[in-house]
Amino acid sequence: MRNNIKISDRFVTVGVLAFGRLLQSVLQILTVRLLTTVLSPFEVGRFYALASVQGWVSLSLGAAPWLYLNRNYLEWRRSNLHGSAFGLFLGYTVLLGVLTALIGWVLLYFSVVSATILWVVTAGGLALWMIGTSLMSQTALLVNLLGHSKIFVILRSGGMIAGLGLATWFATYQSNLAESWIVGLGIGSVGFACVAIVILFRLSNLKFPGSFTNREDAAHLFTSNRSSGFSFMWPVMVMTGLYWVQSQGYRIPIANSIGEAELGLFSIAYSMGANVVIAAEAVIISQWLVPMYYRKIVGMNPDETDMVWRDCVAVVFPIVIVVGIFAVLSGPFMLRLLAHDSFQSAVYLSVWGGVAESIRVIAGLFYIGGIGRQNTRNMILPHVPGAVIVAIAASTIGAYHSLHWLGLLIALSYFVLGISLWLYVDRKMVVRLSLRQFRLSIVTILTMAIVFFFAWVNDWYQDEVLSALGLMVLGGVSLLGILPGVRNLRVEGRS
Q: Helix count (H) and strand count (E) of the chain?
């Protein structure tokens, strides 16, 4: 009876998290529609350029410390040091917000990004956004870590809704500027971050400010265990910084060389296929593959972990391929449905998001295998070539003046990342796939290709109703193609 209850609770938790992920995907779709409706391509480009500043600080300087907090929070809770430790990270996040404001001001002062409003508004909005999103996201993760998945979903979704609502209101009724959107996101995220912190304190039996009184003891955790803490964080900082170059670092050079409007068109078109792959990655990789893989490799040596990795990847790889092809083919139809008319000229660019992100997910499978082998330091160098390729793309875009060149090199950078991870982590990490495993995937891909060709030659992407029809047909075919793979993944997990 007790085991049945545990199994039932587990399914409820998975269901809640899956629903939360679905709701967040819907909100991301709505965000694209509202963003492209209230802002022009020029202002959308300015938003993405300024967002890359927040992204750099968050990924390069914020991700590793917050990950370290998540890793040790429950252990520190046993020593009654979790409140003080959280206070240290809270102060650190505020400092990162100040740094974000300073970087934003420098970019505006030297005209790297076009300034259309007082710099203090832009810098202040970026600071609020940085602080709010970091605290909102990480505090919600700590709530989930304590076993409150429903509250976690409410906080994450509520924060997104509040930020999106305020951003839309500011951009519509105050000014149609990127700053209005950023300020709205910042105020909404900070508000919900405060709510999340209060909830975390109640769930953790913490009191403000009394729980912050042991700062010296909490700081001692980082100094006395310097080797463990530092060795944990610095490889993550380096890797996330290099990943930022690949994923966001090209935005500011592009905005400076060929203009914010072109950047806006590319970013929205790229997001069409990218969001499909990211949503599938969250469910299939993060919620299914990774937990299953980590459970199976407990107590195993590296050779044994490689065998488990090969078995897991063999199941998930056909799913990734089908989802990737769907993301590529559905891009033009999604652009018609989700983006404003002023962004429809970027229809041919919509394929790159699906191509590049699919390759990134496949490369990430080698990253997961490396984590299983605990080869974190060995995974730093493989991230360098990909970052260099994107840097070359950003610096040469002015000569070629082709956003297809940028999309191609971003996809190439992720391909090189995957090859480099395989070479540096372990060359024995090779997946042997049989034709039988791909039989249904091949049929699915060919069917989607036929549907897309018919729809394309008949210009379905120029009409919203026909675009919706084409998207539903492609989605239905792809779903039929991945269901057997999902079933195999569940069977593999139970075994």
A: 18, 0
What are the two backbone dihedrals, phi and then psi, of residue 136, each rounded to the nearest 5 degrees?
-60, -50
Co-location of 211 and 257 in the same domain:
no
Mapped onto helix, strand or coil, the DSSP state of residue 80 is coil
Q: Which residue has the tokens 């962004």?
A: 343
Q: Which amino acid, residue 350?
A: S
Q: Are 271 and 346 in contact (CB under 8 A)?
A: no
Nearest to 61 by CA among 244, 231, 252: 244
| Same domain, yes or no: 182 and 309 | no
Residue with the two structure tokens 């509040």: 162
pLDDT tens-digit profile of 373-432? 666 677 788 889 989 999 888 888 766 668 898 899 999 999 999 888 888 766 666 666
Range of the domain at 454: 232-495
Which one-letter amino acid corresponds to residue 119? W
| Three-state secondary structure call for residue 26 | helix
Shortest CA distance to 35 belongs to which of 188, 165, 192, 213?
165
The burial class, CB within 10 Å (0-12 / 13-18 / 19+), for 358 is buried
Q: How far is CA 6 from CA 10, 11, 225, 293, 345, in A?
A: 6, 9, 36, 20, 52
pLDDT digits (tens, 9 = 90+) for 60-70: 898 888 878 87
| H-type alpha helices, 339-382 | 351-372
Cα separation, 288 vs 266, in Å, equals 32
pLDDT tens digits along 77-103: 877 777 778 888 888 999 999 999 999
Pairwise CA distance, residues 9 & 145, whole Å: 15
Contacts of 61 (CB under 8 A, 6+ apart): 96, 99, 237
**How buried is 226 (Cβ within 10 angstroms: 0-12 exposed, 13-18 middle, 19+ buried)?**
exposed
Residues 322 and 448 occupy one common structural domain: yes
Does 2 reside within a domain? Answer: no
Per-residue pLDDT, averaged over 273-300, amounts to 79
